[in-house]
Amino acid sequence: MGIVIGLDVGTSGTKAVAMDETGRLMASALVEYPLHSPKPGWAEQDPADWRAAALSALSQLAAQVNPADVKGIGLTGQMHGSVFLDAENNVLRNALLWCDQRTAAQCDAITEKVGAARLIEMVSNPALTGFTAPKILWLRDNEPHLYEKVRRVLLPKDYIRWVLTGEYATDVADASGTLLFDVKNRCWHRELLSLLDIDPALLPASFEGPEVTGTLTAGAAAQTGLPAGIPVVAGGGDQAANGVGCGIVRRGVVSASLGTSGVLFAFADTVSTDPEGRVHTFCHSVPGCWHTMGVVLSAAGSLQWFRNQLWTGEWVRAKAEGREVYEDITAAAGTAPAGSEGLLFLPYLTGERTPHKDPFARAAFIGLSLRHTRAHMARAVLEGVAYAMNDSTEIMRGMGVAVDEVRCSGGGARSALWRQIMADVNAAPMVTINVDEGPAYGAAILASVATGMHARVDAACDAIIREVDRVSPDPAAAAGYGRWFREYQAAYRALAPGFRRAAEILG
C-alpha cells in the first residue's frame, strides 16, 4: 500500500497528515509553537521551532504507519514569511511573518519607485506589508549588519524543505506571494529585482506544485524514522494547497473558508488581475494554472467576538454542559428575518484587506432600533461576513473569473444557516465536501501526483473528493440581500474617513 504525507508549517503549529491513494486519512499529528511580538504590530517566529515541530510531527506519523509505505512528502505552509540564512545556512534572526505590519515605509518606497500600476502589471499584486519583498528591504534598512550576511531568503515551508533535503527550492504559488515573482510567466521578475537592488541569487529555484524538489537526507531520515530517499515535493503556499484539498482545480469551482479570517479562492485557467489590486492573483499549485483570492480578516472571528462579548452567560453555561454555544447563537439568528430588519454589521474588527486594504477600518452595527434583539444582531453578524465575502465575489466576476459553485470549509461552514445566507448573498450554491483537513491534505494530494499514484491534480481530486451537501440560493432572499449589500457597501464608504480620523485621535 502506498502512503503520501502532507506537511503544513502553519502559524500556530505544524500539522502532518498521511493518506493512501483513495484519500483515506491514515494518521495525523500536530505540534504547536509560540508567536513572538517584540513590538506592537510585529509578528515573528523562530525557524528552529518550525524545524523541531516538523521533525517531531513526521516522527509521530512514522510511528503510526509503516514507514516503508511512504512514497512522498508534500510541503505547504504559511505564506510570505522570511527566513534569512548566512553562508553556512545559519538563521540570522527570527522570521518576519505574514501578519507582521512593520514594513509600511518599505511598501510605500516600492510603490513610489516602481509605480502602483506598473507594480501590478509586473507582479499582479500591490505592495502589502505582509509580503516578502518589503521584509527584505526592512532588514536592509534597519539591520544592515545582518543584511550584509544574508545569502539565502526562504519562505517558511522552504526552510523546512532545506532541513529535509538540503535543497533550496520553492513552488510557484508560494513564490507569487513574495511580490518578486512574475505571476504571468511563472518565474522570478528580474527587472523588479534589479529595481529594488535585490540579488536574484538570494532566491531559490521555483517549481510547479507536483514536481519533486529533492529527497529525504540520511540525517533527516534518522531524526524522523522515515526511510532516506523519499521524494519531497514542491507543494504550495497554504491557500493554494488548501484549494487543492478542496478540489478547486477547474473553472467555476471556488472555495470559501470561514475560519477566523475568511478566504474566497477561485481557480483560473488564464491569468487575470484586478487593476486596483483589490484581490490577489497568484499561480496555483495546479501546473499552468492560477488562482484569484480575496481575504476577509474577521469572518468566524466576528462571530467569536459576538460570543465573547454579547453571549457570555450562555457561553459559560454551554461549556459547563459540554455543548457548543455557536449552535445556540445561530439558532437564535435563524429566528430573525433575512436582512435583520435593517440592521447591518461591518465585520472590520481588525481592519480589512479585501477590497479596502484599510488597516483603519473598524466594525460597526448600523441601524439599531428599539425593535432589534440579540437574535437580530447575531444574524447581522452572519450577514455582514457574507457581504464582506461577496465583495470578493463581485470583483472576481468582474474580472471574468467564474463563480458557479462555492465549496465551504472552516468552522463557520458547520452552520446550515450561515451556508444558506452565503448562498443567497453570493448568488451561488454552497457545497460541503467529505474532507476538511486543510492545506496539509492538499499537499498530500500534490505528493500523490508527483509519485505516480494519480496522473494529474484534477484527476486526484476527482478520485478523492465527494460532495456531501448542497445549499442553493433562494431567489426571493437573494433579491433582498442584493439591495442590503449595496447599503453595506455605502456604509463603509460613509464611515471610512471617520475611521481614519479616529485612528489619528487615538494615536
Total helical segments: 18
Strand order of the largest sheet: 17-18-16-15-21-22-23
Structural class, judged by helices and strands?
Answer: alpha+beta
- The biggest beta sheet, please? 7 strands, mixed
- Gyration radius (Cα, Å) is 22 Å
Overall description:
The protein is an alpha+beta fold and 507 residues long. Helices cover 40% and strands 21% of the residues. The protein is built from 18 helices and 23 strands. It has a seven-stranded mixed beta sheet, with helices on both faces. The protein has a six-stranded mixed beta sheet with strand order 3-2-1-5-14-13, sandwiched between helices. A hairpin with a 4-residue loop joins strand 10 and strand 11 (187-188). Helix 1 crosses helix 6, helix 10 (238-245) packs across helix 16 (439-450) and helix 15 packs across helix 18. It starts with a strand and ends with a helix. The mean pLDDT is 95.
